[in-house]
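Please decode residue identities from the backbone states below.
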């Protein structure tokens, strides 16, 4: 979005220092500065104010500051993080785009990506990058939207009660999607009931003429439906938007018959895994509610691509099939990954290289052992990296895992799934496997 520095100062209650320049977008990372953007220094592991000069030299048009003023135009505020949220809220008020927000324990980013692909068939669409789903990412995503955007798709994550309510207050979505409620970040939430209640904060903020898009197959999601003051549209096996006759090709790409109150259509996905059908149905429901035809919905889904490290299926020069699902992991997504590996049509070995599923609290030990038991039942060999919670002797890190796998002489007919929480960093292993 384009805005004047004086408009920024007014929106955040700040003091304009320097020229009233025109700004386009915003970033908190001096490495991603674009010409004329607003640089927002934040207090994190390092004080972002130390990067103001570099950001301005790199082309930023102005900067916020709660400390020293750098070169060029500045807007002085008491707290740059608070100012960023205030600015995101002001930007939301200035756009005519229909806003879609996606939350849930599993599938947020995939549904965001699929929804953006669908809505692009109906108009100019902007979606948040990667997993920009917190009090920094959501306002930055709104500020990054083109002025002429028809649709804006956002992702919302939470680590404590009230987080989704705060993000909803900034984004004021027209459509809210709840994917699943599952065991994720339970070390912070304590129970699935609290997770459900927190995700349900999204429904509290939807307008009467909006829509709550809910997973009919998840009782904890449906238990929040009464909080919506707007219409509810369900997706899933028992939903109003559903899939029939699901099949997978040799690359785990699903096809199905889409059924909905708006009509039927054949859908062929380029994303991988049977669990992506549910995510596609959520995106279809969003598009249908916002006025797209079943034909346009199917066309959008057919060209959708996911953010990196999410169910990427590729073949190494040796013939080894590698499933890179290393972006993150919790018990529900781990089950989906293992089932995807088991469904691959390969004649050789199936190996899952897994890392820690982080932030599970008191459920940690049980959850990891249940994953190990599932792998055993599916005939999958399990290699654990950096954790002994799966009940197998752990490999120390990426190098040892790579050496171990190289010793197995894997190739044509074999398949490896690589999956773990972000702290495991297993995407590096997936890249090494594909180099062989």
């Amino acid at each position: 979005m384009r805005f004047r520095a004086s408009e920024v100062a007014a929106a955040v209650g700040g003091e304009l220092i320097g020229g009233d320049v025109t700004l386009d977008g915003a970033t908190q990372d001096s490495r991603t500065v674009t010409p004329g953007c607003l640089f927002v220094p934040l207090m994190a592991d390092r004080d972002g104010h130390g990067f103001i000069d570099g950001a301005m030299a790199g082309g930023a048009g102005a900067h916020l500051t709660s400390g020293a003023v750098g070169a060029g135009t500045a807007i002085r505020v008491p707290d740059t993080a608070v100012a960023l949220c205030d600015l995101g809220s002001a930007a939301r008020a200035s756009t005519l785009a229909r806003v879609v927000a996606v939350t849930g324990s599993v599938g947020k980013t995939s549904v965001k990506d699929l929804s953006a692909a669908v809505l692009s068939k109906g108009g100019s669409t902007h979606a948040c990058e990667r997993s920009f789903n917190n009090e920094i990412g959501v306002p930055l995503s709104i500020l990054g939207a083109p002025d002429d955007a028809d649709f804006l798709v956002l992702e919302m994550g939470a680590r404590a009660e009230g987080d989704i309510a705060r993000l909803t207050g900034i984004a004021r979505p027209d459509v809210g999607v709840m994917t699943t409620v599952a065991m994720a970040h339970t070390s912070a939430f304590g129970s699935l009931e609290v997770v459900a209640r927190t995700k349900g904060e999204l429904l509290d903020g939807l307008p009467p003429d909006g829509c709550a898009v809910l997973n009919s197959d998840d009782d904890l999601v449906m238990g929040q439906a009464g909080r919506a003051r707007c219409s509810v549209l369900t997706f899933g096996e028992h939903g109003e938007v559903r899939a029939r006759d699901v099949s997978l090709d040799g690359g785990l790409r699903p096809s199905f018959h889409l059924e909905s109150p708006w009509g039927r259509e054949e859908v062929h996905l380029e994303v991988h895994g049977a669990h992506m059908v549910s995510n596609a149905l959520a995106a279809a429901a969003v598009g249908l509610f916002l006025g797209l035809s079943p034909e346009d919905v199917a066309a959008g889904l057919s060209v959708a691509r996911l953010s990196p490290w999410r169910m990427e299926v590729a073949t190494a020069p040796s013939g080894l099939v590698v499933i890179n699902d290393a972006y993150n992991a919790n018990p529900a997504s781990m089950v989906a990954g293992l089932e995807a590996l088991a469904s691959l049509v390969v004649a050789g070995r199936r190996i899952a290289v897994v890392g820690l599923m982080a932030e599970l609290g008191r459920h940690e030990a049980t959850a990891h052992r249940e994953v190990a038991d599932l792998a055993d039942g599916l005939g999958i060999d399990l290699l654990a990296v950096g954790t002994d919670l799966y009940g197998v002797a752990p490999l120390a890190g990426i190098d040892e895992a790579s050496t171990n796998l190289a010793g197995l002489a894997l190739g044509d007919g074999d398949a490896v799934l690589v999956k773990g929480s972000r702290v495991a960093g297993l995407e590096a292993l997936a890249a090494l496997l594909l180099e062989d």
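Observation: DSSP finds 16 helices and 21 strands in the chain.
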